[in-house]
Amino acid sequence: MTQFGPLSELRERPIGAVTEIRARRGGYRAYPIARSNTLHGEPMVELKSLGLAGENYYHARRNPPYWQRIEGSIPALLARSSVAQRLVRVDARLRSAGLQLHLFDAWRPKAVQAYFHDVWMPAELRRRNPSLTGDALTAEVERYWAAPSRDADSPAPHATGAAIDLTIRWIDGDALWMGSLFDDATPLAHRDRFEALGDGDLSFSDEEARANRRLLHWLMIEEGFAGHPDEWWHYSWGDQLWAALTGADAAHYGEASDGV
């Protein structure tokens, strides 16, 4: 038995290309929200109170590439209770191998969403590629940062309490190597970045990142989550993106404001 015990198989199970999933993502914010379902008004809970580990990345100061506390951020990690219970079950599976989830972000205030969508990301993209302007710039921004919305039928995923950013770490120890920083807004962060490369093209670091992304992916997928194709850390259950990626008829959750 390896260090990862019964989870070893998941580290070896290919994710495959996410081309089809990436195509399904288009127009996801037009998916209906089933407000009559029993989950729609479900409360949010503080995830750390359930024994899950993490720190709100935007409220921290050691948070590359930002290196600052983002105005409007909160220290809490909040999610809908059904989402939270699924995370607890994933965490329990990891603990059988001496691992645990580590959360970066969950419910996100509009001020944080707006800052990154309207200010930080456009400036960073223009710094790297001054030719990006207009619709092309907006499209590139929105590969990674959804626009904040005042439309109740089209909330940003993290505004719903159904979206989670996370990784895996050793219990009270170092994070597993995933191949990029959290929030790396480049193709390096794409879920299938290392899947298309032949074994002869992978460095030791690449092989380890591929195995660890696979582990996180399958643990979350087997618990019903959907994974953002361009962000290895982003998963959701019950929001419009989840509905689009899984083929559900409608989302369970709309916007959750002020932690309720």
Tell me about this structure.
There is one protein chain. This protein is α+β, with helices and mostly antiparallel strands and 260 residues long. Helix content is 30%, strand content 11%. It has helices at residues 8-12, 19-24, 81-95, 110-128, 134-141, 204-222, 240-246, and strands spanning 44-46, 53-54, 78-80, 99-105, 163-170, 226-227, 234-236. The chain contains seven helices and seven strands. The protein is globular. The protein has a domain at 5-51 and 80-107 and 156-246: Muramoyl-pentapeptide Carboxypeptidase, domain 2 (2-Layer Sandwich). It has a five-stranded mixed β-sheet with strand order 2-4-5-7-6, sandwiched between helices. A two-stranded antiparallel ribbon has the order 1-3. The relative contact order is 0.20. Helix 4 (110-128) packs across helix 5.
User: What fraction strand?
Assistant: 5-15%
The CATH class of the domain at 5-51 and 80-107 and 156-246 is identified as Alpha Beta
What class do helices, strands and sheet pairing give? alpha+beta
The major sheet is characterized as:
5 strands, mixed
Shape: globular
Determine the fraction of residues in helical runs and give it as a percent range.
25-40%
Q: Strand tally, please?
A: 7
- Elements, N to C (H/E): HHEEEHEHHEHEEH
Number of helices: 7
Extract low-pLDDT stretches. none
Provide keyphrases for this structure.
five-stranded mixed beta sheet; Muramoyl-pentapeptide Carboxypeptidase, domain 2; globular; 260 residues; alpha+beta
